[in-house]
Amino acid sequence: MLIISDVHLGKVGHFRKAGIPIPRNLEQEDLALLSDLIRMYKPKTLLILGDFFHSTLNQDWYWIPLWRDQFPNMKVILVKGNHDILSQERFLEAGMEYIPDHYSLYPFYFCHEPILNESINLNGLYPLSGHVHPGITLNGKGNQSRRLSCFYFSPEQGLLPAFGRFTGTHKLAVTRKSHIFIVSGNSVLPLPTNPIDPLI
User: Which residues contact 29 (CB under 8 A, 6 or more apart)?
Assistant: First the structure.
């Protein structure tokens, strides 16, 4: 299984429709990268934790059936995100299984938004979600800094980075109990921790 979140296809078209000049090839490159990952890892299932398509119907949608046709034997499951506002029928017609709430597969509880309500019974499953677009700022000795997307795992839950590049990031605190893996280019690297500083 290949698990991703927050692709936000259609966001470029949404902005372009409003007259904001955004390069159209951003989303095609995201789909090309996803295709490369599928060919590399050959998953039986692609699980998308929400926000696959960002907006109402626009021209960007018509790339999706063409992309989907490349992988007819792969199951695609979409856990609905807050931006997946197209009708369920659209996603079904594109060959996706559509789940409006969450998807459980031991030992994980897959959802779009992080679990903030302690009354939700997870039955011992570990929540894994997207939505937040986690990121971290790295500071150099020469006053330079760079914000990068990251995977964020705490004892309570895990957050996946946004797969789409046209998304932005939300800065998260790093504690001794959290495990951070930075996305940099084609690499995913563990964040070195400083045992002296409890917060980076």
Answer: 165
User: In angstroms, how far is the first alpha carbon of the chain from the final one?
Assistant: 32
- Residue 112, judged by CB atoms within 10 A of its CB (0-12, 13-18, 19+), counts as buried
Say how many C-beta atoms besides its own lie within 10 A of residue 5's C-beta: 28
191 or 151, which is more confident: 151
Q: Quick check: 140 pLDDT over 80?
A: no
pTM over 0.90: no
Burial pattern 30-67, b for ≥16 Cβ within 10 A else e, equals bbeebeeebeeeebeebbbbbbbbbbeebebbebbeeb
The DSSP bridge pattern shows strands 2-4 and 45-48 to be parallel
Structure-block tokens of residue 99? 């789940």
Q: Find residue 99's DSSP bridge partners.
A: 79
- Phi, then psi, of 13 in degrees rounded to 5: -60, -35
Sorted by where each begins, the domain ranges of the chain are 2-190
In the CATH scheme, what architecture does the domain 2-190 have? 4-Layer Sandwich (3.60)
